[in-house]
Amino acid sequence: MSEPIKMFKKHELLRSLSERGIPPKILEAFSAVERADFISAELERMAYDDIPLPIGKGQTISQPYTIAIMLSLLELKPGQKILEIGSGSGYVLALLSELIGEKGRVFGMEVLPELAKKSRKALVGYKNVRVFAKSGAQGLPDKAPFDRILISAAIHEIPEKILHQLKPKGGLLVAPKGSRFEQDLVVLQRKDNVFEIKKKVPGFLFVPFVGE
């Protein structure tokens, strides 16, 4: 894909996200991160289409609008510590890095070693991001507590072990929760040992959480 075409398609994607109410800070992150860096060369022509794309091993890089909604729900702030479970290609990790800044820290967990390896390569310039090639079913207790946790795969029930890795005062978790065929994006907030559902956004479809 030539540079002018890439720039045009990226501009059109950003315009579409803006028209659908995505906040400016998140648009800035999408502008800074090249989605094309996180997909195979043969799919590069579709890098800035607002659709999910395959990344191998039956997994996908999510639709940009879906990712933007998840990032909006996380209520991110500079300097936070974030965990993404099911980090796949690493694209969302890069966006998270942009949003929390160099003083923040981002941890990704990807159960498929091949995808974890590819994502590390794509993320080489992001000094505040680490990717672990392991199942996210137990979370990442050695690095807890987290200000925010994002689960990027469809899950039926969120394990208590993961919930308790949120910061006790106001930690937020966002996850697509539901059946294999349709999920709600659920926002849970921790207040000591109480986990309150703050919001539900219906109508999403993610690949299944590996480990359930």
End-to-end C-alpha gap:
39 Å
Q: In terms of per-residue confidence, which ranges show pLDDT below 50 for 5 or more consecutive residues? A: none
Global mean pLDDT: 95
State the share of residues found in helices, binned by percent. Answer: 25-40%
Strand order of the largest sheet: 5-4-3-6-7-8-9
Q: Structural class, from helix and strand content? A: alpha/beta
**Element-by-element helix/strand order:** HHEEHEHEHEEHEEE
Number of strands: 9
Individual helix count: 6
Shape: globular
In percent, how much strand structure appears in the residues? 25-35%
Rg, Cα atoms, Å: 16 Å
User: How would a crystallographer describe the biggest sheet?
Assistant: 7 strands, mixed
Can you walk through the features of this model?
The protein is an alpha/beta fold. It has 6 helices and 9 strands; from the N terminus they run ααββαβαβαββαβββ. The chain has helices spanning about 5-20, 25-30, 65-75, 90-100, 115-120, 160-165, and strands at about 55, 60, 80-85, 105-110, 130, 150, 170-180, 185-190, 195-205. The strands form 2 sheets. A 7-stranded mixed β-sheet has the order 5-4-3-6-7-8-9, covered by helices on one side. The protein has a two-stranded antiparallel sheet with strand order 1-2. β7 (about 170-180) and β8 form a beta hairpin. α1 runs antiparallel to α2 and α2 crosses α4 (about 90-100). The relative contact order is 0.13. The mean pLDDT is about 95.
